[in-house]
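job 3f2a | input accepted
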Amino acid sequence: MVKFILKRIGTMIIAMFMIILITFTLMHSIPGGPFTNTKGVPEEVTQAMEAKYGLDQPMPVQFVKYLGSLLHGDFGPSYKYTGKTVNDFIATGAPVSAKLGLVTLVFVLLTSIPIGILAALKNGKWQDMLLMAIATIGVTIPSFVIASVGTSLHRTARLYHQAPAGALYLR
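job 3f2a | predicted structure (171 res):
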């Protein structure tokens, strides 16, 4: 069992490394850079910004530094918002995402368990077939479609109002 777990962890590490490497390589293969479209900025300023963020160094050096930063939990500075780091944005959004995930989990558990019990009690009857059809439709529809329809229904019903940072609160 320990051998199996260690093998899985090793596979996970290799997969994560490959994902990071491929993403890093693809981002560097795109023409331009984060400061390319800045209008009216002299070339010297652009070069100074690239030097400040280490973008003037060779790609392997940038990758090793990037990998080291990731291992320490540092996702680097924001190129768009000066004085902010990516960690700041994650720290701001993580509580809202966790709250949304928890609310979703509670909703799913409170609805799916009674539905499953009902389907088991009415096995083979029309109620079971209806619940299975609804479950199949729910699984086959892409989540972005469900989210769009849910948002439209939500706004139509006016049960909630939108607060700053995307958080939802009851009226």
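job 3f2a | The longest helix spans residues 86-121.
job 3f2a | closed
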